[in-house]
Amino acid sequence: MINIGGELTLPPLAEAVVDLDAIAHNTRVLASLTGADLLAVVKADAFGHGFLEVARTTLNAGARWLGVTSQAEALTLRAAGIGAPVLSWLHAPDEDFGPAIAAGVDLSVASVAHLRGVAAAAGRVGRRAEVHLKADTGLSRNGATDADWPELVRLARANELLGRIRVRGVWSHLAGGETSGDPRDDVQLRRFERALELARDGGLTPEIRHLANSAGLVGLPESHFDLVRVGIALYGPEPRADRQVGLRPAMTLRSRVILTKRVPAGTGISYGHDYVAPAATTLALVPVGYADGIPRIVAGRGEVWIGGRRCPIAGRVTMDQVVVDVGDLPVRTGDEVLLFGDGGRGEPVVSDWAGWAGTNPHEIFTGIGARVARRYLPVRSEQQNTGRERVHV
Ligand SMILES: *Cc1c(COP(=O)(O)O)cnc(C)c1O
Hints:
Elements (H helix, E strand, L loop, with lengths): L1 E4 L2 E3 L3 E6 H12 L5 E5 L1 H6 L2 H10 L4 E4 L2 H9 L6 E3 L9 H5 L3 E4 L2 H14 L3 E6 L14 H13 L3 E7 L11 H19 L6 E3 L3 H6 L7 E4 L1 H4 L15 E6 L2 E5 L4 E2 L5 E2 L4 E6 L16 E4 L2 E4 L9 E6 L8 E5 L9 H8 L3 H7 L5 E5 L16
Parallel strand pairs: 3-21, 4-5, 4-11, 5-6, 6-7, 7-8, 8-9, 9-10
Antiparallel strand pairs: 1-2, 3-12, 12-20, 13-16, 14-15, 16-19, 17-18, 17-20
Bound molecules: pyridoxal-5'-phosphate.
Pyridoxal-5'-phosphate binds next to helix 9, strand 11 and helix 10.
């Protein structure tokens, strides 16, 4: 319900229903695949699934750490009373790192400039900063290059001796991992081992080494080390087509029909009339558009589930609406529309949308707009907080 103030509430035109039981299930499944600890990546509003709800659920189900990209996210977790270890990893070097350090949030450091900023802030707040040094082992995104690593290690050790920081972790991020036997994985593993060796030679004693994302967890056991950072797999999409592990989609995106009309053959539909009805048909108007995260590019491919069937989106996706060609189905105003779900009824799943849009499920999830209400289904199973039973594979 959308609260307009006072007594007045209106049902939302579209909602994302997040099944927290699926998040808990996925956490347990993923934890069972490794002897390492699990860091649940809850950046970007937990991939659009709801930040605090997902954070609490995944911790209760066995994740030990939370991962975010900003101090703002990390401090929101602390303000909500979440005391679990948190790593934040994307910062400008001139940020004031004081609030994160004071809140006991671990910080990633990928350059000398960032290290100086963190050490100075630690001095100001009078608390040692817990740091994870980030090596670039082949993604060429964040992280220190092989050339810059020795100086970063040297300065980190100097600041450890001053009591400003402790290097608790050394980490990196994989570039591939979507298919088995990618030779780039071996290169990254070797470069990571080398970075660890240089850190040890420089006097550092990182207790937490981490490299794997979801795909690495499922498909590259050598990348697990002490901690794996799982994002997309928590939310249901299988990270590796060649090694499905039984994850459950957590989000259902649904709306309802707000208007139907019968039109004759030859009727042009939506802007530009890209779609022309081949025969007399019924059109259903669904009040979601690209402002809600329905990519314009799915026109001509995208389908939604109405009246027990998948029906094509007719013509262009507009900002707030799509028109669906439901043929002769007896669809009525008020009928439920599933944009995607767990596929159990034959509705599309998020990976279908990713395929139609030429993107990944991550982008579909994080593109869901602010007008879409979030609703949560609670954890149903009794298996919470059972500790850390693991099946080693
Ligand atoms: C987003 C992110 C992850 C999660 O990746 P998935 O492929 O979604 O599991 C892990 N590590 C880092 C550094 C990230 O930015």
